TrEMBL record:
Pfam families xref list: TetR_C_14, TetR_N
DNA-binding annotation, residue ranges on this chain: 43-62
Organism from which the protein derives: Paenibacillus azoreducens
Top-rank lineage group of the source organism: Bacteria
GO molecular function: DNA-binding transcription factor activity; transcription cis-regulatory region binding
Name of this protein: TetR family transcriptional regulator
Residue ranges of domain HTH tetR-type in the record: 20-80
Keyword Transcription regulation among record annotations: yes
Keywords: DNA-binding, Transcription, Transcription regulation
Record-linked InterPro entries: Homeodomain-like_sf, HTH-type_TetR-like_transc_reg, HTH_TetR, MftR_C
PROSITE patterns noted in UniProt: HTH_TETR_2 (PS50977)
Record SUPFAM superfamilies: Homeodomain-like
Amino acid sequence: MCVISTHTKQSGGLRERKKAKAMAEVQKHAMRLFREQGYKATTVEQIAEAAEISYSTFFRYFSSKEDILTRDNYDPLLNDAFERQPDGLSPLQALKNAMVSEAAKLSEDELATMRERNELTISIPELWAAMMNANTRMMELIADMVAKRIGGQSDDFAIRTLAGAVVGVNISVTLQYAEHPDADFAKLLDEALTRLEQGLPV
């Protein structure tokens, strides 16, 4: 019984990773088109054609062109990594381990695409609202994960505050990485979350 359960979880994680990589491939083609002809001039049809997928398949991955820039493909993988953390860790320690371990698995191409997405989002004012919505979704995801781990409620103020702090750290790391593309993203994330764990000393 345990063996079957573990295998199912691993298979699910593998499916999620394959989907994340497929989404990253679409994002890579989209970013090339955005560079060549501009964000506003690029259509979903052009992105689908460049990625060699159908128009309908595009919408299995993304809800809109805007979603390409704001969707984090790796949220399901973060949830799996978080659930695998040992029971003795605090929620923040478990989050740090899960986030850093998943960041360390990103390929150079995936990191480059992520950095370029962030840079473009920062440069287009109308995308900031979409990014705020994405950050809110991430906060809700983290709150749900922590609540499940400790047997609490995701709308508990303390849990929401922790989730918001982690999202704030992620924004800080994203901006730092956009300004310093030669930095190690996983190390930046580890350092920032460690500072949060230590009470944000300055």
